[in-house]
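note to self: the first set is below, dont mix up w the second
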Amino acid sequence: MATFCSLVVTLALLAPASGPIATYACRADTKFGRHTVSLRQAVDAQAPAVVPANSRFTVAVHLQPGTLPGEVKGFKLKEVRDLTLRMPVPANSSYVSARLSGGSGLNSTPSVQLEGTTVVVKVAGPIPGGASYQLPTLSVRLKSGRPGTAIETKLKGTSYDDPGLTFQAKIKWKFITTTAPVACYPDPNPALTRTSVSR
């Protein structure tokens, strides 16, 4: 069953490999046990190269469009739902606001909110297997802190128990249909943007 579960998780957020790639280590908890696999998501992020101290600026994170497969080698991905993507408020900055723009094929209205020191994007879905989709662009308004310390935008997550990406994958194999919760964290987790803070 390991091949079956790994195959499904790999396909769940398959995106084009053009541009910068975020690589997630993922774990699916299924009725067949726990199974791990890597997941790749093309991402493009923009932020100013330099900002003055105590000034407001915007970081934009754009996830590239993708297509969910409907079936591969007899395994059917029925849908993905309850997708949650997390991004911490960068060190040496403070949160001002966040908004979402764009997005398609999601069958729901995405939401964004601040939970503690983490910006959280939620997409209820469901996104059917075989469908094309576009996650919304996340624009986060920040206020810079002290000069001399760069502000780096990163994805959240350090382990399966501290995930930065979670979702539910509904899968069918022969006569068995099951829903597997999937938890992912970025590995590696390089900075998406870096902004210097001047005096």
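second set (the one i keep forgetting abt)
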Amino acid sequence: MLRREADQRDGRRSLLVLTDEGADALAAIRNFRRRVIAEATAGWPSLDRDMLARLLTRFAQNYAQVTAAK
């Protein structure tokens, strides 16, 4: 699902590149996650769904910042 390529700017490094198969698998995972979240929140008022979307986005951004620093 990934392939290794040489980094053209730094020969000591390798890059991992998503293959078509990997992109398809990632799309399937994202679609599954969207369907499950939509089903789990189907009975929620739209304001609650909007708030969840905002908070999940905020959480993901903060999580990325915290884990990048470690």
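remember for set 2: The CA atoms of residues 22 and 54 lie 28 Å apart.
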